[in-house]
Amino acid sequence: MLEPESNISLRSKKIGLVLSGGGVRGMAHIGVIKALQEFGLEAEIVAGSSVGALVGALYANNTSITDMIRFFKETPLFKYNFFTIAKPGLLDTDRYENVFRNYFPKNSFEELKRDLYVVATDLEKGEELFVNRGELIKPLLASAALPPVFSPVSYNGGLYADGGIMNNFPLEPVLGKADFIIGSNVSIVSKLDKKHLKNSIQLTGRVTGLMIYAINREKIRQCDMVVEPKALEHIGILDRKGIEKAYMLGYENAIEQLKVLFP
Predict the structure, then answer these.
(1) How far is Cα 114 from Cα 244, in angstroms, rounded to an integer?
(2) Which residue of 32, 94, 154, 237 has the fewest CB atoms within a 10 Å radius of its CB?
(3) pLDDT for 2 beyond 60
(4) Angle CA 50–16–98, to nearest 5
């Protein structure tokens, strides 16, 4: 972390932004972006996984904060005619392509206003794939295709699913390309009371969260500034009612840290 007295030069530095996966909790990323804008800060390079890829793409496209929130509120999560029995997964991810075209009509990384990297998981090869060029919407859908809810996406001859399976905090593309790295991590691990571990769903969520955090902990520590509001853990990853709350948690936490950087 930069010392406060040195931060007068932060606005002149190349800022990198890393956005983790985490479902609805990823609305905190939008709050972080809002806080950065209020302090006159803009990232030039963005890397995202899963919901972080979606938020990152909207940001890289210069979408307003209001329209970012609208995207997630209005995009149908469990639309009845999106259900499928022909593909592995409850919902046919490909059916969301037309929804995404309303926000990304040019469907191209090169048309974005910021350098964007998204990560998806190659299910056949067992490898992660970073995408930064060419077609935009397919890699975005793949990066956010969380099994078993969403079906995998066919892309460039492979079958891809959620980027968070193998890389939930994609720091790699930003390292060496930014002077100051801001990480927004919404896959939170905080102390839980026994009352939050009463059933198998809660236990599975906790164990998965611990595994993801352990894998990415060292990368998170390499950031110059990290936003990870602990209260996010109490918002379900598919709980659309938590959109506004997650947004405000990200905003408030980022504001607190930026006030230290810019006293």
Answers:
(1) 26
(2) 154
(3) no
(4) 35
Phi, psi of 172 (to 5 degrees): -50, -45
Backbone angles phi and psi of 17, in degrees to 5: -130, 125
Neighbours of 1 (CB within 10 A): 12
Helices (H), 114-263: 137-143, 200-221, 243-261
Q: List all residues 6 or more positions away from 119 whose beta carbon is below 8 Å from its beta carbon.
A: 47, 48, 49, 53, 128, 129, 130, 131, 143, 163, 166, 167, 170
Q: Which residue has the tokens 């905003």?
A: 251
67 is catalytic: no
Q: What is the pLDDT of residue 1?
A: 45
Catalytically annotated residue among 94, 115, 122, 162: 162
Please state whether the predicted TM-score (pTM) of the whole model is above 0.85.
yes
Q: What is the pLDDT of residue 90?
A: 59
Q: Hey, how many other C-beta atoms are within 10 angstroms of the C-beta on 227?
A: 26
**Is 95 or 179 the better-scoring residue by pLDDT?**
179
| Interatomic CA distance for residues 9 and 257, integer angstroms | 16
Lowest mean pLDDT among 91-95, 106-110, 143-147: 91-95
Q: Which residue has the tokens 């919404």?
A: 186
Catalytic-residue membership of 122: no
Give 228-253 pLDDT, tens digit per residue. 998 988 888 778 889 999 999 999 99
Which stretches of the chain are assigned E, i.e. beta strand?
Answer: 15-19, 45-49, 115-122, 127-131, 153-155, 158-161, 180-184, 225-227
| Marked catalytic residue, from 50, 151, 184, 187 | 50
